[in-house]
Amino acid sequence: MVVRNVNDVEVVVVGAGQAGLSSAYHLRRSGYEPGRDFVVLDHSPHPGGAWQFRWPTLTYDRVHGMHSLPGMELTGADPRRPSSEVIGGYFAAYERAFDLRVLRPVHVRAVREAGDGRLLVETGSGTWTARALINATGTWDRPFRPRVRGQETFAGRQFHTSRYPGPDAFAGERVVVVGGGTSAVQHLLEISRTAAATAWVTRREPVFTEGPFDAGRGRAAVALVEERVRDGLPPRSVVSVTGLPMTEEMRRARESGVLRRLPMFDRITPGGVEWDDGRAVAADSIVWATGFRAAIGHLAPLRLREPGGGIRMDGTRTVRDPRIHLVGYGPSASTVGANRAGRAAVREVRALLARPRASGGGAGPSPGRAAVRETAAR
Predict the structure, then answer these.
(1) N or C: which end of the chain has fewer CB within 10 A?
(2) Which segments of 192-287 does DSSP mark as H helices, in order?
């Protein structure tokens, strides 16, 4: 297969959320020029990563643990503004301040071997080759919804967090919210103020935590996720192992019965959900706040997965291919973790690029501009 108009760079960064922008910042700080030595490709239509798709009622003061990007603090934000606007505007200003020249919307279809030790990055907007790739695609594009018997027969509406429309869409309805994380609780609390009735369903008994989420608890949570990644298992999110931080609003909801948890139902019927013990809850809508999976399907041609279904990692490097770095994946799937992973990935990439090319070429940031040529993909 002949591929035309191939752009040669040293590093391709896929994704421009927290992890991608952190990586681009550290590449810039290391002397790599955007457009010449590296390129950032973003699937989303606007700056802001996944934040731009958050529901309007998720105001900035309700955001769970947002950390500023390296080199530029997020200050003076109105806590009552939607987080999508606050963080989207902040990311846009960050890209301008550091001249990161993000290309969007660019959908990466596949990453393959290009020969001579290089990677071929195929997109709907052109093709790039690179000596290293930093993957920062997050999870928002891969919402997870468990399969339940009878799901297709439900006569009402079904939403996932990724398309959650806000509480007004459920006024006067009977709503079942499924999921045990922070998003599920936030949906439940605000829907309960407009809906006729709500029910909360989780697979596991929720764990509520008291007191501040300090550094010690954070390190313990990250260690649990790191262990799975080292074993080549699909990662759980950091949030999934931290528990639900108890707030005054949640305490009142528990007392009023809104946060009364039901176990996972056994089937869905046209009119609601049922359990094998005879219990049933009528529903007009089901909201699936059941999380996301890593959006890494474009890396499939490189065969990075282990038998356990995950990708084994050594720091940010994938064990099967040290040219590939995953940031915002597994233990770095938090805003502060993504910042640190971006810095670590660039440090590793610099060491990789300091080695001679497989074809005998030079090292470090290339002196020339991005080349456009015709090449044969192998």
Answers:
(1) N
(2) 215-230, 248-256
